[in-house]
Design a protein that fits this description.
Elements: H1 2-30, E1 35-57, E2 62-82, E3 86-91, E4 96-102, E5 107-129
Antiparallel strand pairs: 1-5, 2-3, 2-4, 2-5
């Protein structure tokens, strides 16, 4: 009889733990900043290419870009581009910093890191700000 009591109490405890943990973790995710993407590369030998991440945004969305780049040789161009190849923002090269933008049109956007005969590194993070 004692064994059944211990087993049933243990079973109840193990059933309640996921529910209480699930509820508290839900509260924690409400305050998180949604990431739209990240791109980075560390290029040791001359290379030419284009890295792109795409995301959809709506008018009024506030977006934060965290950037960092170091060009040892060649060219690097990092841009935020709207559909029809409209350049919205050119990001500084050989600098690190943040830039916040408020989107003025719904649509698809792409962040492009285009490099030619490039040696160096870059790192871009894009987050939607609440």
């Amino acid at each position: 009889m004692k064994v059944y009591k211990i087993l049933s109490i243990t079973l109840v405890i193990f059933l309640l733990i996921p529910f209480t943990a699930g509820c508290s973790s839900f509260k924690a995710t409400k305050g998180m900043i949604p990431s739209l993407g990240c791109m980075k590369d560390d290029i040791k030998h001359k290379s030419s290419s284009n890295s792109v991440i795409t995301f959809d945004l709506k008018k009024g969305d506030k977006v934060k870009f965290i950037y960092d780049s170091n060009v040892k040789e060649g060219e690097l161009k990092i841009q935020l581009i709207r559909s029809k190849n409209e350049v919205i923002q050119n990001f500084p090269i050989n600098k690190s910093g943040t830039k916040e933008l408020v989107i003025d049109k719904d649509g698809g956007y792409r962040l492009s890191a285009n490099y030619d005969n490039f040696i160096g590194n870059y790192n871009m993070n894009v987050n939607k700000v609440k």
